[in-house]
């Protein structure tokens, strides 16, 4: 008999204005000196000002560490760890998109764990302990869902590789998901981050493995994103659409603890080799990856068609094709480029990208096995508008 383990433990405060709960939450945990971890772009923004004034109005002397780049590096998180120890911070408040939240997880780890952050890669034999300052994760984008994730991705700039540090102890103590904080996100970033969340939900549903809990959450997320992403891109001030997208992004990240798939394996090198935004890369590759999976995943794709109320009464394959068409139409509607070449990718990048995609772990749970030749072909096809 196989024993499965399921876990959905994150406490989430969700809703417009929920940021106002932060001081009470910190006081209840007897916090005195919270350290805000954010990124260079956000630190001077209106929403970061709102966060700092929320804390100072409540009597906290909060300070921010913001020397964090879009792909947080080892030296950056080490500097954050030193800032945390030097200031005797007793709570970490991660504020931003995936980069800031990933950096916050690593800084929190280094607050109480000695040595190089990379020595904790993949929990390095259980070295990560629970004795860390409390961690409040406050997302300002609706995409990665890093706020509910138990891993952080840190770039090793010496070897130009990304390392994953994973432990259940890295989970946020509490997430404050306030859709008002996402209102200022421009349309192109709303679209790209939203497609990342959409890809998480779809790939999690198609991933191999037994996880009916994640499957249901994934289908719910797919439905929310299909309905609300075009609205959020069209009108950034649509608070209802922003709220549903923020929720759907968390659903995607909860669901992909089941696994991801070939779209993510293709997307990762598009960032490291071609410099594309992660969500944009997923947005360009998703429909093509679904075409690739169609021969083995028609039944699962037809479940998605049911969730989206597409092609009622057709065969499983007809319904699966309707899903692929819907993904393509949604991407076009929100301004995702129609091909890799339209996004600035050039032919000579394909070989190094293929090598990295083949070595990427995400496609291990893809419903259809992928060879390097098939990955190369997917890139080549995606250079053209389909
Ligand atoms: Fe992703």
> Over all CA atoms, what is the radius of gyration?
20 Å
Structurally, how many domains make up the residues? Answer: 2
Largest sheet: 6 strands, parallel
**Poorly predicted regions:** none
Bound molecules: fe (ii) ion
Query: Strand percentage, roughly?
Result: 5-15%
CATH C-level label of the largest domain = Mainly Alpha
Terminal CA distance reads 45 Å
Shape: globular
Q: What order do the strands of the largest sheet run in, or round the barrel if closed?
A: 1-8-5-4-2-3
Structural class: alpha/beta
Descriptive report:
By secondary structure, the protein is α/β, with parallel strands linked by helices. The protein folds into two domains: 11-182, 3-Layer(aba) Sandwich (Rossmann fold); 187-382, Dehydroquinate synthase-like - alpha domain (Dehydroquinate synthase-like, alpha domain), CATH 1.20.1090. The chain contains twelve helices and eight strands. The chain has helices at 22-28, 46-57, 74-86, 98-112, 187-206, 212-234, 239-255, 262-272, 278-307, 316-333, 350-359, 372-382, and strands at 11-14, 34-37, 63-65, 91-96, 134-139, 151-156, 161-166, 174-177. The strands form two sheets. A six-stranded parallel β-sheet has the order 1-8-5-4-2-3, with helices on one face. Strands 6-7 form a two-stranded antiparallel sheet. Helix 5 runs parallel beside helix 7. The protein is globular and about 60 Å long. The termini are far apart. 49% of the residues are buried. The model has no long low-confidence stretch (mean pLDDT 95). Fe (ii) ion binds at residues 196, 200, 264, 278.
